[in-house]
Design goal:
The chain has 269 residues and is of the alpha/beta class. It has ten helices and eight strands. The protein has a single domain, classed as Rossmann fold (3-Layer(aba) Sandwich), CATH 3.40.50. Strands 3-2-1-4-5-7-6-8 form an eight-stranded mixed sheet, sandwiched between helices. Strand 1, helix 2 and strand 2 form a beta-alpha-beta unit. The longest helix is centred in the N-terminal third of the chain and has 23 residues. The relative contact order is 0.13.
Length: 269
């Protein structure tokens, strides 16, 4: 596993170790439901056998069941979305080997993240319901398939949060791609055509890309944070954006960021 991924998984685990018990105890003995959505779940393990983000999430929740913070009255839906059929099959096989309590509902869905989650939200809307408290981990390799409109829809529901990987190095490289179909992804990802104007402006393009995405996320979310990942030569590779409408969630994510970067709380290189 590359160091970037290990750091990213540490951020995820540290936050979920705080998020699950907060939501679990929030129901105060009443039946409830929590959703964990992994939008680009992967095959379930890496080349050297390291576990992926799905197992990290389930293990975090299991630890809180054992400590009494997640009671059987709180149903936890783990929704793992993976577009590649072979990855989805391998992930389902790996997860089937885990021993989980009956109030854990583990589902692997083979399909595109935007289609799967969009369909879930459409169904909820059609029934006049609301999305249960949700943490959506959106970790693509690239810049497509993560429409901003979908992030807005998730954040419009109470106690729902997103953690999104924006691969700024790729975006900066392809913003002026000659293929119009490639360039068309960017307005959908950012929710605005303004992103196409960045190459025409003077100044730091990477900074402009990240500031634009943060500004867009600040429309549906009161609290937006960022953690930057840098490469071996300290080049800015990608940034993880956290968006929430609850100050406590934002504070807990800041604590996770500081755990990984004890010097500044916002960068791994």
């Amino acid at each position: 596993m590359v160091p970037h991924t290990a750091a990213k998984h540490e951020l995820l685990k540290t936050y979920l170790d705080r998020w699950f018990p907060i939501l679990g105890l929030d129901f105060r003995g009443q039946p409830g439901r929590i959703n964990y959505i992994d939008g680009f779940a992967g095959p379930g393990e890496y080349d050297r056998g390291e576990i992926g983000s799905p197992q990290i999430a389930i293990q975090s929740a299991l630890a809180h069941v054992q400590s009494g913070n997640l009671l059987p009255n709180v149903e936890i839906n783990f929704i793992f979305v993976e577009s590649k059929p072979e990855f989805a099959r391998n992930l389902a096989e790996k997860l089937s080997q885990l021993q989980v309590p009956s109030h854990f509902k583990v589902k692997v869905i083979q399909g595109e993240f935007a289609d799967v989650v969009g369909s879930i939200l459409d169904d909820i809307q059609a029934r006049g319901g609301a999305l249960a408290p949700t943490f959506a981990f959106v970790d693509p390799f690239g810049f497509s398939g993560i429409p901003f409109e979908l992030m807005q829809r998730i954040l419009s529901h109470r106690k729902c949060e997103v953690y999104i990987n924006i691969m700024v190095e790729f975006i900066n490289r392809f913003l002026q791609h000659p293929d119009e179909d490639v360039v068309a992804h960017f307005p959908r990802t950012f929710g605005t055509d303004e992103v196409l104007e960045i190459p025409l402006q003077a100044g730091d393009r990477v900074r402009a890309i990240l500031e634009l995405y943060k500004r867009q996320l600040s429309l549906p979310a009161k609290y937006v944070g960022r953690f930057d990942m840098h490469g071996r030569k300290d080049q800015h590779t990608y940034s993880l954006f956290f968006a929430s409408n609850h100050p406590r969630g934002f504070q807990k994510m800041k604590e996770a960021h500081w755990k990984v970067d004890k010097a500044n709380g916002g960068k791994f290189s």
